[in-house]
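User: My advisor, Dr. K., asked me to get a structural model of this assembly before our group meeting. I'm new to this, so sorry if the format is off. These are the inputs:
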Amino acid sequence: GEDVEQSLFLSVREGDSSVINCTYTDSSSTYLYWYKQEPGAGLQLLTYIFSNMDMKQDQRLTVLLNKKDKHLSLRIADTQTGDSAIYFCANQEGGYQKVTFGTGTKLQVIP
Amino acid sequence: ETGVTQTPRHLVMGMTNKKSLKCEQHLGHNAMYWYKQSAKKPLELMFVYSLEERVENNSVPSRFSPECPNSSHLFLHLHTLQPEDSALYLCASSQAGQGNYYEQYFGPGTRLTVT
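Assistant: The format is fine. Below is the predicted structure of the whole assembly, which you can bring to the meeting.
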């Protein structure tokens, strides 16, 4: 089956950039997603990228997709303490029922 | 407010108990999901319901039984659980279809502890 892998933990200083990485195995991806989970809450969609795109920028967020290496990254510029959360990468292979999530990366922002 | 609510938020149950988790969505979506979130493991899709079909992860034990009486409500019936079933159980909803991007809207989860 499809695997989506992420490192479990990342620590950065406030004001620095954060880069969260994700690798996946399935080559038939249609969309890839980044979700954010704050303490005590469910996941919330941050951004997504269509598999034919290389990059997508949305304010402080930059998503990079390398299809050849099956690598997805999320860069958060000027990281703030409010960005502390768990970030999940997800890969959609076809329809709504074929979305595979990773383990989540816990981002800790140090003031 | 995400539009997806779950009750109860916390549940402690013994291995011989029977309980149910409830999820309700107020977003007009036609697909609903149950996920299991355990530390250091990928978010695990357990079941998907839509108007046309039910999809289940074959690795989910039969002690978990879903029920979807309509497009707004989803239940997860639990019986004779094991301690390793302790986890956060998340419900989500989305529109169903093929080929487009689908944002899933998640509830806050039920923290289940099996003693």
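One thing worth pointing out at the meeting: Chain A has a mean pLDDT of 94.

User: Perfect, thanks a lot.
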